[in-house]
From TrEMBL:
Protein name: ABC transporter ATP-binding protein
The organism's place on the tree of life at top rank: Bacteria
Keyword ATP-binding set for record: yes
Keyword tags: ATP-binding, Nucleotide-binding, Transport
Ranges where the ABC transporter domain occurs: 4-236
GO molecular function: ATP binding; ATP hydrolysis activity
Organism whose genome encodes this protein: Oryzomonas japonica
Matches recorded under Gene3D superfamilies: P-loop containing nucleotide triphosphate hydrolases (3.40.50.300)
Cited SUPFAM superfamilies: P-loop containing nucleoside triphosphate hydrolases
InterPro entries to which the protein is assigned, alphabetical: AAA+_ATPase, ABC_transporter-like_ATP-bd, ABC_transporter-like_CS, ABC_transporter_ATP-bind, P-loop_NTPase
Length: 271
């Protein structure tokens, strides 16, 4: 179980400051949701955590070590592009297993991959190319791959953003079920979403980012017991109060940006 620490992280694309002074520690086994308006730098922050880019200043440590690039200690699930399209679902997982646990027999990798596909309800998809799977099935396979390599940190960038409401609810439940399975081995998760209710359902803590530049506007503890039952949550007073607070913080930020004459979201994208 890894602690993830961001210390005074700044990031700019050229002259544009995107993230400013991001300081936050995810405790080992935390489920952290990143919420914020479009363009506030959520994906950029995830890229920094993935080691695909590096902070302009400040630092990020995983289990006390500075991130020096991508690594097998982090499983990644993005909205698209999570699987190699030219490999079957099974081959995608086998490849990840070969990299994470080198030196085993091919059959062993295949068996493990098949087991993880079965776990996410995709027993029949081993030999199917991602292009032949629905969006929900592709994300199941991507989750299976992330859990198969058993990385202590899981980075998810709007993984369910393109899915219909029912598939989304099923995958949220699946993700929680997998994450909760072993309390002593819980992954530290960073999950980007635009959806306030999704964030409350999933997270221990919600980090709200503001835009222009992306700064932390607030960190909210989600004080709701687990397992969380969706139907019960909506009637829960703590859930409702937290949802109202989050919406208020998000809209205060957006409205102040609009007052300043800036456009914060492109059409239909984000809150
Ligand atoms: N490769 C890039 N080059 C230059 N600017 C970029 C690049 N990628 C992102 N940006 C800019 O950085 C800012 C933050 O983008 P980012 O994608 O991290 O935001 P986000 O919060 O994830 O947005 P969304 O919710 O719409 O996905 C935006 O203003 C965006 O235009």
């Amino acid at each position: 179980m890894y602690e993830v620490t961001l210390s005074n992280v700044n990031y700019s694309y050229g002259d544009q400051r995107v993230l400013q002074d991001i300081t936050f520690t995810a405790e080992p086994g935390d489920f952290v949701c990143l919420l914020g308006p479009s363009g506030c730098g959520k994906s950029t922050l995830l890229r920094l955590l993935a080691g695909l880019s590096f902070p302009s200043s400040g630092g990020i440590t995983l289990d006390g070590k500075q991130i020096s690039g991508p690594g097998l200690d982090r499983g990644v699930v993005f909205q698209d592009y999570s699987l190699f399209p030219w490999m079957t679902a099974g081959q995608n997982i086998v490849l990840a297993l070969e990299q994470a646990f080198p030196g085993k027999k091919k059959d062993e990798y295949r068996e493990t991959a098949a087991g993880y596909l079965e776990m996410v309800g995709l027993a029949d998809a081993y030999d199917k190319l991602p292009g032949l799977l629905s969006g929900g099935m592709r994300q199941r396979a991507a989750i299976a791959r992330a859990f198969a390599i058993n990385a202590p940190v899981l980075l998810m960038d709007e993984p369910f953003g393109a899915l219909d409401a029912i598939t989304r609810a099923r995958l949220q439940d699946l993700l929680l079920q997998l994450w909760q399975q072993r309390q002593d081995e819980r992954k530290t998760v960073f999950f980007v979403t635009h959806d306030v209710e999704e964030a409350i359902l999933l997270a221990n803590r919600i980090v709200v980012l503001g835009v222009n530049p992306g700064t932390i506007k607030g960190v909210f503890e989600v004080d709701l017991p687990r397992p969380r039952i969706r139907q019960e949550l909506y009637h829960n007073q703590t859930f409702q109060t937290l949802r109202d607070r989050l919406v208020t913080v998000l809209y205060e930020n957006i409205l102040s940006e609009l007052d300043a004459g800036q456009i914060v979201a492109s059409q239909g994208d984000g809150i």
